[in-house]
Amino acid sequence: MSRISGSQRQRRRRLGEWLPQSEDHIARFRLQLAEQARAHARRAPMSTVVEDLAALVQSDAVLRMDMTNAIHEALDEGHQLGYESIDELMRIIDYTTTYAPPFSESSLVHCPLNAVLDWPMCMPSGYALFRDPALNAQLRRVLNYWSGFLSGPHSRVHLTTDSPDGWFSPEADGHIGMSQFLCHPHTPSWGFSSWNDFFTRRFKPGARPVAEPENDRTVISACEAAPYNLEHGVKLTDTFWIKSQPYSLTDIFTHREIETARCFEGGSVYQSFLSAFNYHRWHAPVSGTVSKAYVVNGTYYSDAEAEGEDPGGLNDSQGYTTAVATRAVIVIDSDAAALGKVACVFVGMADVSSCLIDALPGQRVRKGEELGYFQYGGSTCCLIFRPGAIDRFIPTPPYDDKASPLKVNSPIAIAR
């Protein structure tokens, strides 16, 4: 595994603004969070789901060994974690389950648990640790518990106009542009019932018009997302864990859906990533009938060793995550004969990462209609096309990760 220097760490970008660019800001956040967690532990008992997570790790010799080693490896490299043991880490995890992120212009941390685990997850012992199925199943329970908090009224603490923490403050609005979204500024919390209600806010009618709605050959962006990668000639099964992270269709769709995967063998994958500040609902890229719609439970904090140290959390492993992370898969039988089946893969990365599907098999969808949404957490999206289906892609590599996200419902490809 390649290691990188301190100066290289500072240069690497954290895509989508889920975590600050500066490692110093994140280290300071971890230390502050650890202090808050200690205070929380003195006045409140640990939640049952985190107790169960702690019990799993402490009772499994291999998990206990890997987690202890991952923490110590990160500390030995000089990283400021805010914790030195499994017990201290569990107290911090417990505190995050009642944490609603404040806005910050300089050091915004949208994904607190990702920030806490940022270094152990890319240490030698961390790679195997965060792929363990039992650990991920228990992490899913913890993250769902946190999502429950974020879906309740107590999560609205920062849904205010107060500077510098409020999400409706002038500073925050400069990043979000709330005038585009359905909201009620003259009511408490601007009419949002919870943090997740705010996070999954909807655009006002007409804010994102559908490109050429009657032209079935025009494929639109399923998300408000920046282009990340475009790959042709994808294989049915590939070594997705190596440096180039080729897409492995069998692993993306799962072995139970091997026949669906075969439909796209030799085809193209267009991948894009979502920003923390933007829209988190998914829209149909084509008109047609939904033939498949299912969620695959997977990993939450698993990185690819081939990328070396990844201080950007999961950013450098986005191709890899399509095969291993929790994801929603929706296949649409397009009205355009040249396109045939089009697959939409919505990948939850880190923290809550819940993928909620609205459009079910047998349902007719028109291009631009909503398919589902991400609740809180980082996210990336793939559109997968059959071989020969696309005449040309509109955004083409090399992609600029500093560019603004491509608007949802805007054109991304033209069918043959």
From TrEMBL:
Example GO molecular function: phosphatidylserine decarboxylase activity
GO process terms (BP): phosphatidylethanolamine biosynthetic process
Signal peptide extent: none
Domain called L-tryptophan decarboxylase PsiD-like: residue spans: 48-173
Keyword Nucleotide-binding attributed: no
InterPro entries: PS_Dcarbxylase (IPR003817), PsiD-like (IPR022237)
Keywords: Decarboxylase, Lyase, Pyruvate, Zymogen
PANTHER family assigned: PHOSPHATIDYLSERINE DECARBOXYLASE, PHOSPHATIDYLSERINE DECARBOXYLASE FAMILY PROTEIN (AFU_ORTHOLOGUE AFUA_7G01730)
Name under which the protein is recorded: Phosphatidylserine decarboxylase-related
Organism: Paraburkholderia phymatum (strain DSM 17167 / CIP 108236 / LMG 21445 / STM815)
